[in-house]
From TrEMBL:
<feature type="region of interest" description="Disordered">
    <location>
        <begin position="1"/>
        <end position="25"/>
    </location>
</feature>
<feature type="transmembrane region" description="Helical">
    <location>
        <begin position="81"/>
        <end position="100"/>
    </location>
</feature>
<feature type="transmembrane region" description="Helical">
    <location>
        <begin position="175"/>
        <end position="195"/>
    </location>
</feature>
<feature type="transmembrane region" description="Helical">
    <location>
        <begin position="202"/>
        <end position="224"/>
    </location>
</feature>
<dbReference type="Pfam" id="PF05216">
    <property type="entry name" value="UNC-50"/>
</dbReference>
<dbReference type="InterPro" id="IPR007881">
    <property type="entry name" value="UNC-50"/>
</dbReference>
<protein>
    <submittedName>
        <fullName>UNC-50 family protein</fullName>
    </submittedName>
</protein>
<feature type="transmembrane region" description="Helical">
    <location>
        <begin position="236"/>
        <end position="256"/>
    </location>
</feature>
<comment type="similarity">
    <text>Belongs to the unc-50 family.</text>
</comment>
<keyword id="KW-1133">Transmembrane helix</keyword>
<keyword id="KW-0812">Transmembrane</keyword>
<dbReference type="GO" id="GO:0000139">
    <property type="term" value="C:Golgi membrane"/>
</dbReference>
<keyword id="KW-0472">Membrane</keyword>
<feature type="transmembrane region" description="Helical">
    <location>
        <begin position="112"/>
        <end position="134"/>
    </location>
</feature>
Length: 274
């Protein structure tokens, strides 16, 4: 696939969630993201599939290529990626439910938890944290030091290049995709092997978590590094050091798949034969 791509402008308009910035005396309009929430014919699912493929093979291309100013916003008001990943989570939740849940009600519970708590809920939480911390600590300031800048959910007259909550959400949901691949798909397929009492199983199982959360950190970094008005974004890579230390310590007997598998986050239990 080679979708048509517009290049970013280096200086954009006010912060919003994909809405058109209001002029003086004009009320704030509903963000375009919400306006397009159920307009499926207008969604670019082809671009969403291209993004997902690139997030695993070459994640830098995603933010370097598709994030551009559309009516003065860095946020891309197209929920196609959210819908597509939710559909994939639906399929994987059914697989986890059939394998480990007790009955139809347990499978429904796992499906709701996977989509609305693991994916949407954690992405909103990560977006909120990044929105308040990244914009304040990594904005322009004294050369060589983290700066501080103002940001807002919606447009503020006279401001330029603020950090948008919509963009933070864009980054968070895309960072979740590698987590889905490693922990919801690959881990499910390998669970009967990696959850056994062998050191090799321990090594490969725990390495899946290192790859998943390491990829998550890298995608988050690339997302904010693509914004020209943020500085010192390399600080966002620092959790990788902590993850590597925890991964090494876990090799001495703590099996992450047996204690942190997504099915356990949903309140279900791994069956004894695993």
């Amino acid at each position: 696939m080679n979708p048509h791509i517009s290049l970013p402008r280096q200086h954009g308009g006010p912060a919003n969630f994909g809405g058109t910035p209001p002029t003086r005396g004009e009320t704030i309009r509903m963000p375009r993201f919400f306006k397009r929430l159920f307009k499926f014919p207008q969604m670019d699912f082809e671009m969403a599939i291209w993004e997902m493929t690139s997030l695993i093979i070459a994640p830098k291309k995603v933010f370097r290529s598709i994030y551009y100013h559309t009516k003065n916003t860095w946020h891309r008001p197209d929920p196609s990626f959210t819908y597509l990943l939710s559909a994939f989570l639906l399929l994987t939740s059914l697989a986890w439910g059939l394998a480990y849940a007790d009955g139809f009600g347990g499978t429904v519970k796992i499906t709701l938890v996977f989509i609305f708590i693991h994916f949407i809920g954690l992405s909103l939480l990560a977006s909120t944290i990044a929105y308040f911390l990244v914009g304040r600590l990594l904005g322009p300031g004294v050369p060589g030091l983290p700066g501080r800048r103002r940001q807002g959910l919606f447009a503020q007259p006279g401001e330029s290049d603020p950090l948008e909550f919509g963009y933070c959400f864009d980054v968070s949901i895309r960072a979740f995709f590698p987590v889905w691949v490693f922990l919801y798909v690959i881990q499910f397929l390998l669970m009967p092997v990696i959850a056994r009492d062998y050191w090799v199983s321990l090594f490969f199982g725990n390495t899946l978590y290192l790859l998943a959360f390491g990829y998550y950190t890298i995608v988050m970094f690339l997302g904010y590094n693509a914004l020209p008005f943020l500085h010192h974004t390399e600080l966002l890579l620092s959790p990788i050091v902590v993850l590597a230390i925890l991964w090494f310590a876990s090799l001495f007997g703590f099996s992450l798949p047996r204690h942190l598998a997504p099915i356990l986050w949903a309140g279900a239990k791994l069956r004894k034969h695993v």
